Amino acid sequence: MSDEQKKMHILAISAHAGDQELTAGATIAKYTQEGHKATFLHLTPGEKGHPRLSPDEYAKQKIEEAYKAAEILGADVRFLQYKDAEIPVNDEIKYEVADVIREVKPDIIITHWKHSIHKDHANTHKIVEDAHFYAALKTIERDLPHHYARKLYFSENWEDMHEFVPEVFIDIPEEAFEAWVKALSVYAFARGETYGFPYIDYYKALTVVRGAPVYFKRAQGFMVPRGGLNKRLQWFE
To answer: Known Gene3D superfamilies for this protein (predicted)?
Structure first.
């Protein structure tokens, strides 16, 4: 996996800053530590999720946290200009995401599962599925040429658990695990300083739960678009 011709690029697309860091960040750290590339694309900062700060104040904080977390994980980060809790599902945003896909040319895309208690997560799933398709079509003419990301995975989020059944399990080594926990600790919400949910403890424990049945010390679980997989993997296929 270390030869230059085998380097890959992961694009993790989330509704809010912090979503994919929580759910796929350990996997991304594993990849970047092996010399692969990763980019986070956040459709919003998630600025309406603080009980004491205004959305403008919290947006500034979340954006700063996102850049710090991405640096720890060895990834780049981008934002689209949408508002928390107001992500639309239309061709405008789908083409915006498709344009990013064409620009950064990922091999792998990770995003939300479709069934969620959070509207933004469910909408992001729909947006990314179509953006993945639009980006790949040569006959859709945009500023940049078409690009097909060969794999699409859905990460495990506690808000997206209805009918989520992990099918691919990625082994998480110690060094990647430590970087991931450090990155999560950058986010105030992950530390439990907004509404008190113990995000870091929850997701750390989840890596043990997902790893044990497939004989990994720790793992992160993912779904695929059409199911049918149940694989114990060192790396995404």
So the answer is: LmbE-like
